[in-house]
Design brief:
Elements lengths: L28 E2 L20 E4 L4 E7 L13 H13 L1 H5 L2 E11 L8 E12 L2 E10 L6 E12 L2 H6 L2 H8 L2 H9 L5
Bound molecules: Palmitoyl-CoA.
Length: 194
C-alpha cells in the first residue's frame, strides 16, 4: 500500500481557487481542446460534443444530449458515458485557472436514470487548490438547468505540463497535433501562467 490518501476532502492548508485574469469571460464558449477528444471534439462521430461556457467564478456550464450511441440499458445512458460528461466538464475548469490538469480521481453518484434524448445540464466548480491538486465538483441535471440532479461527481485533478502529453501520447497523434497551428495555439495558451 502506498501512503497516498485517496480522500477527496481538501487538506486543511488548501487555498481557494483563483480565477485567472485571462480566463474566458463569463458566458464565453470554451472551444474544444482537441478535435478527437471523445468529450468535446467535433471529429468524433459518437462523441459527446460537449460545449462548455465560462462561468463568473472558477466554474463552467455545459450541455450534452444523450444519443443512441450512448446507451447502456435499452433507452438509457451508460453510466460511464455520464461519468465522461462530468469528467470533461471538470476538465474545462483548467481554462478558468489557466493550467492544464488531468483527472487523478473521480467519484460519481448516479441518482436518476437518464433516458436517450435527454439534455443533461452540467455545471462544474473548483472548490480548493493544494499544490498541484485541484479539488472540484460537477453536477448533471435533467429537464433544465434547475431540474433534478441525475449525476454528481467529486473529483481531484492534478496540474501537469504539456510534456505529460508529449511524453505519453502515441507518436502519430502527437506529431499530428504539433503540426497543427490551431492546436499549438491551444497548448501555448497554457504555457505561461504568471
Ligand atoms: C501537444 C499536446 C496539446 C495538448 C492540448 C491541451 C490538452 C488539455 C487536456 C485536458 C484533458 C482533459 C480531459 C478531461 C479529463 C481527463 O479525462 S484527463 C485523462 C485521465 N487522467 C489521466 O490520464 C491521468 C493519469 N495519471 C497520471 O498521469 C498521474 O498519476 C498524475 C495524475 C499526473 C499524477 O502523477 P504525478 O504527476 O507523478 O504526480 P504525483 O506526485 O503522483 O501526485 C501529485 C499529487 O496528487 C496526489 N494524487 C495523484 N493521484 C491521486 C489520486 N488518484 N488520488 C488522490 N491523490 C492523488 C498525490 O498524492 C500528490 O499529492 P501531494 O503530494 O501534492 O499532496
Amino acid at each position: 500500500m502506498s501512503g497516498r490518501t485517496t480522500a477527496l476532502t481538501p487538506p486543511a492548508d488548501a487555498g481557494p481557487p483563483v480565477r485567472h485574469p485571462e480566463a474566458p469571460a463569463p458566458g464565453e464558449i470554451i472551444g474544444s481542446h482537441y478535435e478527437y477528444c471523445f468529450g468535446c471534439g467535433g471529429g468524433v462521430a459518437h462523441g459527446l460534443h460537449l460545449e462548455t461556457r465560462a462561468g463568473e467564478g472558477v466554474n463552467v456550464t455545459a450541455e450534452f444530449t444523450v444519443r443512441e450511441a450512448h446507451q447502456g440499458a435499452p433507452g438509457l445512458a451508460h453510466g460511464g458515458v455520464l461519468a465522461t460528461a462530468l469528467d470533461e466538464t471538470l476538465g474545462s475548469l483548467g481554462w478558468m485557472l489557466r493550467v492544464i490538469a488531468v483527472t487523478g480521481r473521480l467519484e460519481t453518484d448516479f441518482l436518476r436514470p437518464v433516458p436517450v434524448g435527454t439534455e443533461l445540464h452540467l455545471t462544474a466548480e473548483a472548490v480548493a487548490v493544494h499544490r498541484r491538486k485541484i479539488y472540484c465538483t460537477a453536477t448533471g441535471r435533467i429537464g433544465g438547468p434547475d431540474g433534478p440532479v441525475a449525476v454528481h461527481a467529486n473529483a481531484m485533478f492534478v496540474e501537469v505540463k504539456i510534456d505529460h502529453f508529449i511524453d505519453n501520447g502515441r507518436k502519430e497523434e502527437i506529431q499530428a497535433v504539433m503540426a497543427d497551428p490551431d492546436q499549438v495555439k491551444v497548448a501555448r495558451a497554457f504555457e505561461v501562467n504568471p
